[in-house]
Amino acid sequence: MEPIAVQLNGVSKMRKRRIIGPIDLAIPEGYVVAILGHNGSGKSTLLNMLQRVVLPDSGQIMWFGQHYEGELPTELREHIAFVADGGGSEEDNITAVEAARFRAHWYTRWDAKFFKQLMDDMDVPYDVKLKKLSKGERRKFEIAAALAARPRLLLLDEPSSGLDPFAWKVMVEQFRNFMADGDTTILIATHIADEVKRLADYIVLMHRGQSLGMAEKDVVLDQWREIWYEGDLRPESIPGAVESKQEAGAIRVITTRVVEAQERLELAGNRIMKIRNLELDEVLQYWIAGYAPTLWR
Ligand SMILES: Nc1ncnc2c1ncn2[C@@H]1O[C@H](COP(=O)(O)OP(=O)(O)OP(=O)(O)O)[C@@H](O)[C@H]1O
Protein backbone atom coordinates (compact mmCIF):
# COMPACT_ATOMS: atom_id res chain seq x y z
CA MET A 1 0.00 0.00 0.00
CA GLU A 2 1.21 3.50 -0.81
CA PRO A 3 2.45 5.70 2.05
CA ILE A 4 -0.07 8.34 3.07
CA ALA A 5 1.01 11.97 3.51
CA VAL A 6 -2.09 13.22 5.29
CA GLN A 7 -5.09 11.36 6.56
CA LEU A 8 -8.32 12.83 7.87
CA ASN A 9 -10.66 10.69 9.92
CA GLY A 10 -14.09 12.24 10.52
CA VAL A 11 -12.64 15.75 10.63
CA SER A 12 -15.19 18.55 10.98
CA LYS A 13 -15.28 22.26 11.65
CA MET A 14 -18.38 24.24 12.52
CA ARG A 15 -18.69 27.47 10.55
CA LYS A 16 -21.40 30.10 10.82
CA ARG A 17 -23.18 29.13 7.61
CA ARG A 18 -22.29 25.47 7.41
CA ILE A 19 -20.44 22.55 8.89
CA ILE A 20 -17.28 21.58 7.04
CA GLY A 21 -17.08 17.78 7.20
CA PRO A 22 -17.04 15.19 8.57
CA ILE A 23 -14.23 14.58 6.09
CA ASP A 24 -12.53 11.21 5.60
CA LEU A 25 -9.62 11.41 3.24
CA ALA A 26 -6.24 9.80 2.61
CA ILE A 27 -3.77 11.70 0.42
CA PRO A 28 -1.04 9.46 -1.03
CA GLU A 29 2.52 10.70 -0.68
CA GLY A 30 4.30 12.20 -3.71
CA TYR A 31 1.24 13.15 -5.78
CA VAL A 32 -0.54 16.34 -6.74
CA VAL A 33 -4.10 16.40 -5.44
CA ALA A 34 -6.56 19.09 -6.52
CA ILE A 35 -9.24 19.98 -3.98
CA LEU A 36 -12.04 21.14 -6.24
CA GLY A 37 -15.25 22.84 -5.29
CA HIS A 38 -17.44 25.89 -5.65
CA ASN A 39 -16.94 29.04 -3.58
CA GLY A 40 -17.52 28.37 0.10
CA SER A 41 -17.34 24.58 -0.25
CA GLY A 42 -14.61 24.35 2.41
CA LYS A 43 -11.37 24.06 0.39
CA SER A 44 -9.44 26.76 2.26
CA THR A 45 -10.75 25.54 5.61
CA LEU A 46 -9.39 22.11 4.76
CA LEU A 47 -5.94 23.50 3.84
CA ASN A 48 -5.94 25.63 6.99
CA MET A 49 -6.71 22.59 9.14
CA LEU A 50 -3.79 20.77 7.52
CA GLN A 51 -1.39 23.42 8.78
CA ARG A 52 -3.21 23.79 12.10
CA VAL A 53 -4.11 27.44 11.48
CA VAL A 54 -7.69 26.29 12.00
CA LEU A 55 -8.39 23.62 14.60
CA PRO A 56 -11.04 21.00 13.81
CA ASP A 57 -13.90 20.61 16.27
CA SER A 58 -13.80 16.84 15.98
CA GLY A 59 -12.01 14.03 14.19
CA GLN A 60 -8.34 13.29 13.77
CA ILE A 61 -5.65 14.38 11.31
CA MET A 62 -2.45 12.38 10.77
CA TRP A 63 0.62 13.87 9.09
CA PHE A 64 2.98 11.25 7.66
CA GLY A 65 1.48 8.65 9.97
CA GLN A 66 1.63 10.76 13.15
CA HIS A 67 -1.09 12.47 15.14
CA TYR A 68 -0.22 15.54 17.24
CA GLU A 69 -2.09 17.17 20.09
CA GLY A 70 -1.87 20.98 20.20
CA GLU A 71 0.58 22.86 17.99
CA LEU A 72 2.43 21.06 15.25
CA PRO A 73 6.05 20.44 16.24
CA THR A 74 8.85 22.36 14.45
CA GLU A 75 10.17 19.12 12.94
CA LEU A 76 6.91 18.83 11.02
CA ARG A 77 6.24 22.52 10.33
CA GLU A 78 9.57 22.94 8.60
CA HIS A 79 8.33 20.36 6.08
CA ILE A 80 5.07 22.15 5.30
CA ALA A 81 4.88 25.16 2.96
CA PHE A 82 1.74 27.15 2.22
CA VAL A 83 0.86 29.65 -0.49
CA ALA A 84 -2.29 31.50 0.53
CA ASP A 85 -4.79 32.99 -1.88
CA GLY A 86 -3.63 36.63 -2.05
CA GLY A 87 -3.36 39.09 0.80
CA GLY A 88 -0.30 40.58 2.49
CA SER A 89 1.76 39.07 5.23
CA GLU A 90 4.25 39.94 7.95
CA GLU A 91 6.89 39.96 5.20
CA ASP A 92 5.33 42.99 3.44
CA ASN A 93 8.07 45.40 4.52
CA ILE A 94 11.09 43.29 3.64
CA THR A 95 12.65 42.41 0.28
CA ALA A 96 12.77 38.97 -1.33
CA VAL A 97 16.44 38.66 -0.34
CA GLU A 98 15.61 39.32 3.32
CA ALA A 99 12.58 37.02 3.19
CA ALA A 100 14.76 34.27 1.72
CA ARG A 101 17.26 34.70 4.55
CA PHE A 102 14.45 34.41 7.09
CA ARG A 103 13.01 31.31 5.42
CA ALA A 104 16.43 29.68 5.17
CA HIS A 105 16.53 29.73 8.99
CA TRP A 106 13.11 28.24 9.28
CA TYR A 107 13.27 25.54 6.59
CA THR A 108 16.20 23.19 7.08
CA ARG A 109 15.94 21.91 3.49
CA TRP A 110 15.98 25.51 2.06
CA ASP A 111 17.61 25.47 -1.40
CA ALA A 112 19.09 28.97 -2.00
CA LYS A 113 20.37 28.12 -5.46
CA PHE A 114 16.99 26.82 -6.56
CA PHE A 115 15.27 29.93 -5.13
CA LYS A 116 17.56 32.23 -7.13
CA GLN A 117 17.01 30.19 -10.27
CA LEU A 118 13.22 30.32 -9.89
CA MET A 119 13.23 34.07 -9.21
CA ASP A 120 15.46 34.66 -12.25
CA ASP A 121 13.41 32.39 -14.51
CA MET A 122 10.24 34.19 -13.49
CA ASP A 123 11.85 37.64 -13.61
CA VAL A 124 10.93 38.75 -10.08
CA PRO A 125 12.97 41.63 -8.56
CA TYR A 126 14.88 40.78 -5.35
CA ASP A 127 15.60 44.21 -3.96
CA VAL A 128 12.09 45.67 -3.73
CA LYS A 129 9.91 45.48 -0.62
CA LEU A 130 7.47 42.64 -1.11
CA LYS A 131 4.45 44.93 -0.73
CA LYS A 132 5.71 46.92 -3.74
CA LEU A 133 5.72 43.92 -6.07
CA SER A 134 2.87 43.58 -8.53
CA LYS A 135 0.21 40.98 -7.66
CA GLY A 136 1.66 38.48 -10.14
CA GLU A 137 5.27 39.10 -9.03
CA ARG A 138 4.28 38.62 -5.41
CA ARG A 139 2.56 35.38 -6.31
CA LYS A 140 5.66 34.19 -8.15
CA PHE A 141 7.83 35.07 -5.15
CA GLU A 142 5.50 33.17 -2.79
CA ILE A 143 5.54 30.08 -5.00
CA ALA A 144 9.32 30.25 -5.57
CA ALA A 145 9.86 30.52 -1.81
CA ALA A 146 7.49 27.61 -1.14
CA LEU A 147 9.23 25.37 -3.69
CA ALA A 148 12.72 26.37 -2.50
CA ALA A 149 11.78 25.19 0.99
CA ARG A 150 11.71 21.68 -0.54
CA PRO A 151 8.73 20.82 1.67
CA ARG A 152 7.30 17.34 2.04
CA LEU A 153 3.82 18.86 2.01
CA LEU A 154 2.98 21.87 -0.15
CA LEU A 155 -0.42 23.54 0.21
CA LEU A 156 -1.46 25.91 -2.58
CA ASP A 157 -4.58 28.03 -2.61
CA GLU A 158 -5.39 28.82 -6.28
CA PRO A 159 -1.79 29.00 -7.52
CA SER A 160 -2.60 30.62 -10.87
CA SER A 161 -4.42 33.55 -9.26
CA GLY A 162 -2.88 36.85 -10.43
CA LEU A 163 -0.62 35.23 -13.04
CA ASP A 164 -0.96 36.10 -16.69
CA PRO A 165 -1.33 33.12 -19.07
CA PHE A 166 2.34 33.22 -20.10
CA ALA A 167 3.54 33.33 -16.47
CA TRP A 168 1.18 30.49 -15.61
CA LYS A 169 2.65 28.37 -18.41
CA VAL A 170 6.17 28.97 -17.07
CA MET A 171 4.94 28.17 -13.57
CA VAL A 172 3.41 24.87 -14.72
CA GLU A 173 6.82 23.89 -16.14
CA GLN A 174 8.47 24.77 -12.84
CA PHE A 175 5.97 22.62 -10.93
CA ARG A 176 6.47 19.71 -13.30
CA ASN A 177 10.27 19.85 -12.99
CA PHE A 178 9.93 20.15 -9.24
CA MET A 179 7.66 17.12 -9.06
CA ALA A 180 9.90 15.08 -11.37
CA ASP A 181 12.83 15.09 -8.97
CA GLY A 182 11.13 15.30 -5.60
CA ASP A 183 8.93 13.52 -3.12
CA THR A 184 6.62 16.42 -2.30
CA THR A 185 2.89 15.93 -1.85
CA ILE A 186 1.01 18.93 -3.25
CA LEU A 187 -2.56 19.90 -2.39
CA ILE A 188 -4.11 22.57 -4.58
CA ALA A 189 -7.38 24.23 -3.56
CA THR A 190 -8.98 25.46 -6.73
CA HIS A 191 -11.99 25.87 -8.96
CA ILE A 192 -9.91 26.51 -12.05
CA ALA A 193 -10.09 23.63 -14.54
CA ASP A 194 -6.72 24.45 -16.11
CA GLU A 195 -4.87 24.05 -12.79
CA VAL A 196 -6.42 20.62 -12.41
CA LYS A 197 -5.86 19.49 -16.00
CA ARG A 198 -2.22 20.54 -16.10
CA LEU A 199 -1.06 19.56 -12.62
CA ALA A 200 -3.24 17.14 -10.72
CA ASP A 201 -2.90 13.37 -10.39
CA TYR A 202 -6.03 13.09 -8.23
CA ILE A 203 -9.15 15.14 -7.66
CA VAL A 204 -11.02 15.52 -4.38
CA LEU A 205 -14.44 17.07 -4.86
CA MET A 206 -15.74 19.27 -2.04
CA HIS A 207 -19.39 20.23 -2.04
CA ARG A 208 -21.13 22.25 0.68
CA GLY A 209 -18.51 21.26 3.24
CA GLN A 210 -18.54 17.56 2.37
CA SER A 211 -15.89 15.57 0.55
CA LEU A 212 -17.54 13.58 -2.25
CA GLY A 213 -14.46 11.36 -2.57
CA MET A 214 -11.20 11.22 -4.46
CA ALA A 215 -10.67 9.94 -8.00
CA GLU A 216 -7.77 9.80 -10.44
CA LYS A 217 -7.85 12.81 -12.74
CA ASP A 218 -7.48 10.67 -15.85
CA VAL A 219 -10.46 8.56 -14.78
CA VAL A 220 -12.53 11.69 -14.15
CA LEU A 221 -11.69 13.13 -17.56
CA ASP A 222 -11.91 9.85 -19.50
CA GLN A 223 -14.81 8.04 -17.98
CA TRP A 224 -17.60 10.39 -19.07
CA ARG A 225 -18.73 10.62 -22.68
CA GLU A 226 -21.53 12.24 -24.58
CA ILE A 227 -22.79 10.03 -27.41
CA TRP A 228 -25.04 11.26 -30.22
CA TYR A 229 -26.84 8.50 -32.10
CA GLU A 230 -29.68 7.82 -34.49
CA GLY A 231 -31.92 4.80 -34.11
CA ASP A 232 -34.65 3.28 -32.01
CA LEU A 233 -32.67 2.02 -29.00
CA ARG A 234 -34.11 3.51 -25.82
CA PRO A 235 -31.40 5.54 -24.02
CA GLU A 236 -32.32 3.94 -20.64
CA SER A 237 -31.06 0.60 -21.96
CA ILE A 238 -27.59 1.99 -22.75
CA PRO A 239 -24.97 0.89 -20.17
CA GLY A 240 -23.89 3.67 -17.79
CA ALA A 241 -26.48 6.15 -19.09
CA VAL A 242 -27.09 8.96 -16.63
CA GLU A 243 -28.93 11.46 -18.80
CA SER A 244 -30.44 11.61 -22.26
CA LYS A 245 -32.22 14.04 -24.53
CA GLN A 246 -33.87 13.85 -27.92
CA GLU A 247 -32.79 16.65 -30.25
CA ALA A 248 -33.48 17.19 -33.95
CA GLY A 249 -33.98 13.53 -34.78
CA ALA A 250 -30.94 12.34 -32.82
CA ILE A 251 -30.48 11.16 -29.25
CA ARG A 252 -27.83 12.57 -26.93
CA VAL A 253 -26.87 10.32 -24.05
CA ILE A 254 -24.31 10.82 -21.27
CA THR A 255 -22.64 7.60 -20.15
CA THR A 256 -19.87 6.47 -17.82
CA ARG A 257 -19.38 3.15 -19.68
CA VAL A 258 -18.55 4.22 -23.20
CA VAL A 259 -17.18 0.92 -24.56
CA GLU A 260 -20.22 -1.10 -23.50
CA ALA A 261 -22.54 1.70 -24.62
CA GLN A 262 -20.95 1.68 -28.08
CA GLU A 263 -21.22 -2.11 -28.34
CA ARG A 264 -24.87 -2.02 -27.33
CA LEU A 265 -25.69 0.67 -29.90
CA GLU A 266 -23.84 -1.12 -32.70
CA LEU A 267 -25.43 -4.44 -31.84
CA ALA A 268 -28.88 -2.83 -32.04
CA GLY A 269 -28.00 -1.39 -35.44
CA ASN A 270 -28.10 2.24 -34.29
CA ARG A 271 -25.83 4.80 -35.93
CA ILE A 272 -23.33 6.62 -33.68
CA MET A 273 -22.91 10.16 -34.99
CA LYS A 274 -20.47 11.68 -32.50
CA ILE A 275 -18.69 10.85 -29.22
CA ARG A 276 -17.24 13.59 -27.04
CA ASN A 277 -15.35 13.61 -23.68
CA LEU A 278 -17.09 15.75 -21.09
CA GLU A 279 -15.32 18.85 -19.83
CA LEU A 280 -14.26 18.88 -16.20
CA ASP A 281 -17.01 21.28 -15.11
CA GLU A 282 -19.63 19.05 -16.75
CA VAL A 283 -18.29 15.97 -14.95
CA LEU A 284 -18.34 17.82 -11.63
CA GLN A 285 -21.96 18.71 -12.17
CA TYR A 286 -22.86 14.99 -12.52
CA TRP A 287 -20.56 14.02 -9.65
CA ILE A 288 -22.32 16.54 -7.39
CA ALA A 289 -25.68 15.15 -8.56
CA GLY A 290 -24.64 11.75 -7.22
CA TYR A 291 -23.04 10.05 -10.24
CA ALA A 292 -19.49 9.66 -8.95
CA PRO A 293 -16.69 8.47 -11.22
CA THR A 294 -14.80 5.37 -10.09
CA LEU A 295 -13.28 6.51 -6.82
CA TRP A 296 -9.74 5.85 -5.65
CA ARG A 297 -9.91 2.94 -3.17
N1 LIG B 1 -12.86 32.41 9.68
C1 LIG B 1 -14.10 32.06 9.39
N2 LIG B 1 -15.10 32.28 10.25
C2 LIG B 1 -16.37 31.91 9.96
N3 LIG B 1 -16.74 31.30 8.82
C3 LIG B 1 -15.78 31.05 7.94
C4 LIG B 1 -14.41 31.42 8.16
N4 LIG B 1 -13.69 31.03 7.09
C5 LIG B 1 -14.56 30.45 6.24
N5 LIG B 1 -15.80 30.48 6.73
C6 LIG B 1 -17.01 29.92 6.10
O1 LIG B 1 -16.78 28.53 5.86
C7 LIG B 1 -17.29 28.13 4.60
C8 LIG B 1 -16.15 27.54 3.76
O2 LIG B 1 -15.22 28.57 3.47
P1 LIG B 1 -13.84 28.28 2.72
O3 LIG B 1 -13.07 29.56 2.69
O4 LIG B 1 -13.20 27.10 3.34
O5 LIG B 1 -14.37 27.87 1.27
P2 LIG B 1 -13.59 27.77 -0.12
O6 LIG B 1 -14.07 26.52 -0.74
O7 LIG B 1 -12.13 27.91 0.09
O8 LIG B 1 -14.18 29.02 -0.90
P3 LIG B 1 -13.54 29.97 -2.04
O9 LIG B 1 -13.53 29.16 -3.31
O10 LIG B 1 -14.54 31.08 -2.10
O11 LIG B 1 -12.18 30.41 -1.59
C9 LIG B 1 -17.91 29.37 3.97
O12 LIG B 1 -19.30 29.31 4.21
C10 LIG B 1 -17.28 30.52 4.72
O13 LIG B 1 -18.18 31.61 4.81
TrEMBL record:
Keyword ATP-binding: yes
Domain ABC transporter: 6-233
Pfam family, one: ABC_tran
Zinc-finger listed as a keyword: no
Record-linked Gene3D superfamilies: P-loop containing nucleotide triphosphate hydrolases
GO molecular function: ATP binding; ATP hydrolysis activity
InterPro entries reported for this sequence: AAA+_ATPase, ABC_transporter-like_ATP-bd, ABC_transporter-like_CS, ABC_Transporter_VariousFunc, P-loop_NTPase
SMART domains: AAA
Xref: PROSITE patterns: ABC_TRANSPORTER_1, ABC_TRANSPORTER_2
Keywords of the record: ATP-binding, Nucleotide-binding, Transport
Protein's UniProt name: ABC transporter ATP-binding protein
